[in-house]
Each structure stands twice: as C-alpha cells, then as structure tokens.
Design a protein that fits this description.
Blueprint (H helix, E strand, L loop, with lengths): L4 H5 L26 E2 L16 E3 L4 E15 L2 E8 L7 E5 L3 E8 L24 E3 L21 E7 L7 E6 L6 H6 L4 E6 L6 H4 L3 E7 L25 E2 L2 E2 L2 E5 L3 E8 L9 E2 L3 E7 L2 E9 L9 E7 L4 E7 L2 E3 L2 E3 L2 E9 L35 E13 L7 E5 L11 E4 L3 E8 L5 E5 L4 E6 L2 E2 L5 E2 L1 E4 L4 E7 L5 E7 L2 H5 L3 E7 L1
Parallel strand pairs: 2-5, 3-6, 5-10, 11-15, 14-23, 24-27, 26-35
Antiparallel strand pairs: 1-2, 3-4, 6-8, 7-9, 9-10, 11-12, 12-13, 15-19, 16-20, 17-18, 17-19, 20-23, 21-22, 24-25, 27-33, 28-32, 28-34, 29-30, 29-31, 29-33, 34-35
C-alpha cells in the first residue's frame, strides 16, 4: 500500500518550501544546536581505538551543522591537504532514531574552483563543488531532502531536511559528497561520516548489553588537495593504500576475555574492496547495509565493497593479540595484497584499567532478530516488470584517461531518464557485467533483495543497497518503489567509475 507520506514528503521543491537557502549570503532556516559528544574509547583506555565524535538527536530532531573544507592532515605517507567534513577524518557520527527529523545546516567552505572551461558530463572537474548524500536512507530524493542533483558551490550554504520514517530499518548508514564529477576526489580525500539509525535491533538484549564501537574504514589518497585538477592520483585503482580506521593507522582495539562487542563497520573508501578477517575471534553478522538480518550469522570472513556497512558481533576468547586484516585477493584482474589493519587485544575480563560499570556482553542472539515491514520478501506474483542492465567500459580518445564506463552502452546523461516506473510497483533487474572488474551497484532511496549471483540462487535473499556484480558475471535483484516519487540515481560505487559514466537516472512517478 502506498502510504500518505509518499506525496507529502516528495512535494517539497527548492522554489516552494521557503525552508531552503542556497547562496553565499544565505540565512539558514534550521538552527544547528546539537552538542558534539567527544570521541573516546568505549572502554576508557588511552591507547584504544576511539569512536568518532557524535551529534545526537533530542526530542525527535537532530539539528547538525556540517561544513566541508580543505585541511592539512598527517597521513602515514606524509602531510596532505584533504577535503573533510567539519575538519575531521572521518566526519562526526550522526545518531538518531527511526521517526526523527534530520536537519543539516551545510556550508561549503572550500576555495573557488580552478576550472575555467564548461563542465563536460563524465569528465571529472569542479573538485570544490559538492553536495551531501545520505547513503541508504529511505527518504524523499527531492527538494531539500536526499537530492544528489544539487550543486553547492564554494562559499554557498544549504539547509537539508530529511524526515526519517517511523518504520525505517535500524542500522548503519552514512553521508558523503555526491556531486557527479567530483565524488571520487572528495570521498578519496576522506569526506565521509557514519550515521546510526536506532530501532528494534538495538533493543535485542544481547546487543543492548554490549559495548558499541564505530569503525569507519577509509584509504585517503595523498596529494589530493585544493589545487587538484585531475583525478589521476586516484588511479590506478589497484595502487597500494594505507587503510585508516577512524582516522587512525593500525590502531589497537581492546576486548575483555569472553566479551561480545557490537562493531558498526562502514567501508567509506572510494575504490578497493575490503574483505575482513580476524583469526582467533568469532564474527557474527546481524545487519548489512542498514538492514537487520533474520538471525545472527557466523562468518569466517566479512566481504564488504565500497559503500557497504555491517553490524558485527565480535566474541573474544582467551587473552592474546590478534590481527584484523584484509587477506590478499583478486579484485577482478587486480591483485591486491594482504593488509594489516589493526591489532585486536584481548585482556583479562577483570582488567583493572577498565571500569566495572561498563557494559559487558557475553552472548550471541540465538533467536530470530526483529523483522521490518519494509523488508518483506518480494514474491514472484508481485513483479510487474523485468529489466536488464549491461555494465561496460570502452576506450574513448580525449576522454578522461581515455576511458568511458557505461550502463547499457550509454554513459551517464543528467537530462535522460533511463528508468521510469510507477510508485507502488516492484521489478526484477538483471545485471550483466561485460568488464574484467567487479562493480558494486548502489541504488538510492529503496533497498533491494538479491536473488542470485552468477546464476546461483542466494538462499538468504539478503536486503542491500550496495551489491557487487562479479567481474564478467551476473547478479539478479528485486526492488520495490515505495513511498517516494522523484528522480534519483543508480551507479557503481567504485567512485572513479561513477564519475566517468557508470550511472543512470531513475524516475518514479505517481
């Protein structure tokens, strides 16, 4: 059933609300008043991984002030100028609940663009023009909500207002720039932050009793600064990167003997996949891409692509030092080496350095996790249409790096509607990858249910918003167009691929 908010939330436009100001001298409608909660170790240890600072909702509203600026940062490879939210790597975590309103007073504080030539679609440019995307949110894509067609110029301000549905799935989401042509440069620079939407999953006793950690994984590219005139420093995509967790290189992460911790992971990188292994501890996944799983699932390795998030319950055994690592693997034809990401240190359960009043989870949930109405399985009888999307790449002389990425043999055209569908319908989409690289496909606004990969049915039929189509392979998924009309995009979340053409427009009509 189409809910009433479909027409209400989608009705706002930049010209009619009176709530939005866009310009160097704009007066923001929202007064950002959320107090920043300092980042800290959840166990109170000086050398433990610190959670990022947080902005939290109060009385059903989170009013946050975000800005993007160029900041001098010390990376493992040396000093670099990075584009960051609020001068932080990563940006502050936003924490709110289903049913809350998120108001973001955003200010682009970056210097003027150096470009003088007109913008050409799918050739990266204007690296200081930006906007903010709320990745994974099931909200309106129009007006001053999750509108990725906005172009917020240096010096300009913009006021976002997002109404989170009361039945929004609980889990991990994130925010990052999404102006086509400068996405890769800005995200590869470190501009990203976690969003936590609380709900029924957080009330599961075994999860509620556990220490919670935020882990934002990023691989900033040195040399990306305010003078950047090309995305060349980001390519080749298999270049060795130093992966940071919450802005820290190879941090220490502490657990107590027998403890279960709740780790909220975000892959906020721009290009490389990050399979994760932690030998010597148990890993149990309870959520993916903001969508709770039916039950806790033990995994030997967590496979996450750029844009993916995961809720992970980590159970410690005997004291010792263990290594969180990315195993060596092939990303298509690209051989990527093993990376040492963090030292995980298990200490005695009664370690005197850790306060006795802190939460101490000990169990993994055995029963089913809370279901969500939005994530009802899509049955065969509900499917009203089938579409096929062919992912391609070609050499085009004079193009950026002489490379053009396409969907159905066409590079992105901001004026073209590639998919038109009706609100309240559901479709099955087949992706055929004609390239030697995997492509993590991300769709805005509505999650999708994965049916099969490379012709093999997935018995779990997981709900995701970002899923890798294997190199030279296929993926089949189903999605519902619920609640919101308007235009939004689908694209590869290897962001240099998106900036160079692998994106389409979707238009949902009443």
């Amino acid at each position: 059933m189409i809910r009433r908010r479909a027409l209400l939330a989608g009705a706002a436009t930049l010209s009619s609300t009176g709530l939005v100001a866009l310009g160097a001298d704009a007066v923001l409608a929202a007064q950002a008043d959320a107090a920043m909660v300092p980042g800290a170790s959840p166990l109170g240890l000086a050398d433990d991984l610190r959670n990022p600072p947080e902005l939290r909702s109060a009385n059903g509203v989170l009013r946050a002030a975000l800005n993007m600026s160029v900041n001098r940062v010390a990376l493992p490879g040396g000093l670099a100028n990075l584009r960051l939210f609020n001068g932080m790597l990563p940006g502050p975590t936003l924490r709110l609940s289903a049913g809350d309103t998120l108001e973001v007073a955003f200010h682009n504080r970056m210097p003027p663009n150096a470009d003088t030539k007109p913008t050409v679609a799918n050739i990266p440019d204007r690296f200081n023009t930006t906007n903010v995307h709320y990745h994974g949110f099931h909200v309106s894509p129009r007006g001053n909500s999750d509108n990725v067609y906005l172009q917020i110029q240096p010096g300009q301000r913009f006021n976002y207002v997002l109404q989170i549905p009361k039945d929004h799935p609980a889990g991990n989401y994130w925010y990052h720039p999404h102006r086509h042509g400068s996405v890769a440069a800005q995200v590869a620079s470190g501009a990203a932050g976690m969003v936590v939407i609380r709900g029924a999953l957080d009330d599961v006793p075994e999860i509620r009793q556990s220490v919670e950690r935020i882990l934002v994984l990023q691989a900033p590219v040195p040399g990306i600064d305010s003078l950047l005139k090309t995305e060349d420093p980001i390519w080749p995509l298999d270049a060795e990167r130093n992966v940071l967790i919450n802005g820290q290189f190879r941090p220490r992460i502490y657990l107590r003997e027998g403890e279960v911790q709740h780790w909220r992971l975000l892959h906020a990188g721009d290009a490389q996949f990050l399979p994760l292994a932690l030998d010597g501890l148990e890993l149990h996944e309870v959520g993916r891409d903001g969508n709770p799983l039916p039950s806790a699932q033990q995994v030997a390795q967590l496979d996450i692509a750029p844009g993916n998030r995961a809720n992970l319950l980590v159970k410690a055994g005997k004291p010792g030092v263990f290594r969180l690592r990315r195993p060596a693997f092939m990303q298509g034809k690209q051989a990527l080496p093993e990376l040492h990401l963090a030292d995980v240190i298990v200490v005695a359960a009664a370690d005197p350095r850790i306060g006795k009043d802190l939460p101490f989870g000990r169990q993994i949930p055995k029963r089913a996790l809370p279901a969500n109405a939005i994530l009802k399985p899509i049955a065969d009888a509900e499917i009203s249409g089938h579409r096929q999307f062919v992912l391609g790449v070609s050499e085009v002389k004079g193009y950026f790096r002489d490379t053009e990425f396409t969907i159905n043999d066409k590079p992105f055209d901001p004026a073209r509607d590639d998919v038109r569908a009706r609100l309240g319908t559901a479709e099955e989409w087949t992706f055929v990858n004609k390239t030697p690289f995997p492509h993590p496909i991300h769709i805005h606004v509505n999650p999708f249910q994965v049916i099969s990969s490379n012709g093999v049915p997935d018995p779990r039929r997981p709900w995701l918003d970002t899923c890798a189509v294997p190199a030279a392979g296929t993926m089949v998924m189903r999605t519902r167009f619920t609640d919101y009309i308007g235009r939004y995009v689908m694209h590869c979340h290897i962001l240099p691929h998106e900036d160079t053409g692998m994106m389409i427009n979707i238009n949902i009509e009443a």
